[in-house]
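> example.struct
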């Protein structure tokens, strides 16, 4: 429910819908690269003019909208920002309240070792660890779900020691990706996919055989 999300955020970040409005958080799993992105690039090669992953996600979510011709469906993508430069929605908070992935933050550590350092939080999925991404939000403004029960996300990094290790790795060593394996995972990115996301965005076109 939109209300679960709005309840834990400052008004500036609230989604402008009634509390009981139905929303879905959309995640991409490690297999997205082979099952969705590569076929999309092969098929739409000449139409790709911006980030290929963003365009691929947009394409698939527009197809989801087509499945509900009698419903109003609003889509917000993870990369969209407001004129104020704030994101249109806080993806990790949305994933947490939807029960999709646990958003580990500084407040989840009792004995904080970081002093005045800025520490960013990170979502961990019980099956994929950090090998996934939050891609968007699907909202159904005309569907009110008064009796929907909230599911808590799985707390899969449950010890103080592991939480500190996770936030340390994510904040200070994120490039090596070790934080993604903070738990034992069922599936992770392929070497090809790792290379793709490790490449600066402007050079990714070349990896996919596209010219800008």
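> example.seq
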């Amino acid at each position: 429910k939109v209300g679960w999300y709005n309840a834990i955020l400052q008004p500036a970040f609230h989604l402008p819908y009634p509390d009981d409005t139905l929303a879905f958080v959309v995640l991409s799993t490690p297999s997205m690269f082979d099952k969705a992105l590569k076929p999309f690039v092969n098929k739409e090669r000449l139409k790709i003019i911006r980030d290929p992953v963003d365009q691929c996600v947009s394409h698939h979510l527009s197809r989801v909208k087509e499945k509900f011709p009698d419903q109003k469906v609003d889509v917000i993508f993870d990369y969209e920002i407001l004129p104020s430069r704030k994101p249109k929605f806080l993806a990790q908070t949305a994933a947490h309240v939807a029960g999709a992935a646990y958003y580990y933050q500084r407040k989840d550590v009792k004995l904080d070792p970081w002093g005045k350092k800025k520490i960013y939080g990170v979502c961990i999925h019980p099956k994929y660890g950090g090998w996934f991404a939050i891609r968007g939000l699907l909202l159904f403004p005309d569907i009110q779900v008064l009796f929907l029960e909230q599911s808590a996300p799985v707390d899969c990094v449950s010890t103080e020691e592991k939480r500190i290790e996770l936030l340390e790795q994510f904040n200070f060593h994120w490039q090596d990706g070790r934080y993604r394996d903070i738990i034992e995972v069922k599936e992770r990115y392929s070497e090809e996919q790792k290379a793709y996301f490790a490449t600066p965005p402007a050079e990714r076109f070349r990896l996919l055989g596209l010219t800008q």
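> remarks
The chain has a mean pLDDT of 95.
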